[in-house]
Write a structure and sequence with these properties.
Layout lengths: L2 E3 L17 E7 L7 H15 L4 E8 L7 H7 L3 E3 L10 E4 L15 H14 L2 E5 L1 H11 L4 E15 L12 E11 L2 H6 L3 E6 L3 E8 L3 E5 L9 H14 L16 H16 L11 H4 L8 H30 L1 H13 L3
Parallel strand pairs: 2-3, 2-5, 3-4, 5-6, 6-11
Antiparallel strand pairs: 1-3, 7-8, 7-9, 9-10, 10-11
């Protein structure tokens, strides 16, 4: 069942009929690992709720069957999610596709590659706009433009100042510079995007390209960053990466997320790193100071994230209004001709 986001109105929003151009149907394909499934749902629900001023958003949740899941993850998906196979016959105004945890060196070797490329082709022909996040953005570039991601020496991890590089309705009304969270092992060179006709909207000297778009049959919006993240998401990822180091699932102790912790928290976590490296058995990690590290962390990117998503929802509304008007003209062609007569008399 769709999830209704109450955009400042009463629960009667659920009775809004499909013919309303202020009722938008959006799908969310959640490819995040089991530990982040619920958090990702919450992040997008809250962000869309903040963005949907006067717009009723109906959010349907989907999953790719080929993404590896534990029993607990599958149990969660069985309550409220639909297989992506149910997407093909659905009617959506917009779609959001999250990233996934990389498992293979090449995207084409990921077990879900075929399903994801089918989503790409479907979205181009069946949505007004689709948002591609992180790994999903890299997959879209490879499939539609042949642009390959580049492996980074270390994880691009932290909150980075991103500058608006192009005027576009999606970023209209936002500040010239905004700090945006990034968390990824791969990157896309900006010059290759420009050469292939993609329009970069925000970028950073340290983080690279943040947001870019391509207008085809559908407006594709790409994020290498994570505007949906909550204030403590990077902290929880940092702690998870330390755990993986201690379990020998990664070779190096993770770097502190750049531009994220205040100096006092950074000093405490750096000292913890030094002690843990001297005794990497996990006992010290049991006292990881989550509460202390959260001091001073704030979600400074949320206002811009809500603005971008609000502009996106407004775009979806305008496209739906156009479709409804065209449909009305097809049903009542003589009325449409009468409406156009005054313009013809004026030579317009």
């Amino acid at each position: 069942m769709p999830v209704y986001l109450n955009a400042g109105a009463s629960s009667r929003d659920s009775s809004v009929v499909e013919s309303s151009d202020t009722c938008i149907n959006i799908g969310l394909i959640n490819n995040m690992p089991d530990g982040a499934l619920r958090a990702t749902e919450r992040q997008f629900v809250n962000l869309l709720g903040s963005a949907a001023k006067g717009i009723v958003v109906r959010l349907s949740l989907y999953f790719l069957p080929e993404v590896s899941r534990t029993e607990a993850g599958l149990s969660h998906l069985n309550h409220g999610y639909s297989s992506v196979n149910d997407l093909w016959n659905s009617s959506l105004d917009g779609l959001i596709v999250t990233g996934a945890e990389p498992r293979a060196p090449e995207l084409t070797d990921e077990p879900y590659w075929r399903s994801l490329t089918r989503v790409l082709d479907w979205a181009e022909n069946n949505t007004s706009s689709t948002i591609w996040s992180c790994l999903a953005a890299h997959a879209a570039l490879l499939h539609t433009g042949g642009i390959r991601r580049r492996r980074l020496v270390d994880k691009r991890f932290g909150v980075f100042g991103c500058t608006r590089t192009s005027d576009h309705p999606l970023t209209a009304g936002g500040p010239a510079v905004v700090r945006m969270p990034h968390s990824r092992w791969n990157d896309i060179p900006e010059n290759e995007l420009a050469d292939c006709g993609y329009r970069v909207l925000m970028s950073s000297p340290e983080a690279g390209v943040d947001t870019f778009v391509r207008q085809g049959k559908s407006l594709f919006v790409f994020f290498q960053g994570h505007p949906e993240y909550e204030a403590n998401t990077l902290l929880l990822e940092y702690r998870r990466d330390i755990e993986r180091f201690l379990r020998r699932e990664r070779d190096t102790y993770p770097l502190l997320p750049s531009g994220y912790f205040n100096p006092a928290s950074a000093e405490i976590l750096t000292a913890l790193r030094e002690r843990t490296l001297c005794d990497p058995q996990g006992e010290l990690f049991a006292d990881f100071p989550v509460g202390l590290a959260e001091t001073g962390i704030s979600n400074t990117w949320h206002p811009m994230a809500a603005r971008v998503y609000g502009n996106w929802l407004t775009f979806l509304c305008s496209q739906k209004a156009r479709r409804l008007k065209d449909r009305q003209r097809w049903k009542h062609p003589h009325t449409a001709e009468i409406e156009e007569l005054p313009d013809r008399r004026m030579g317009l």
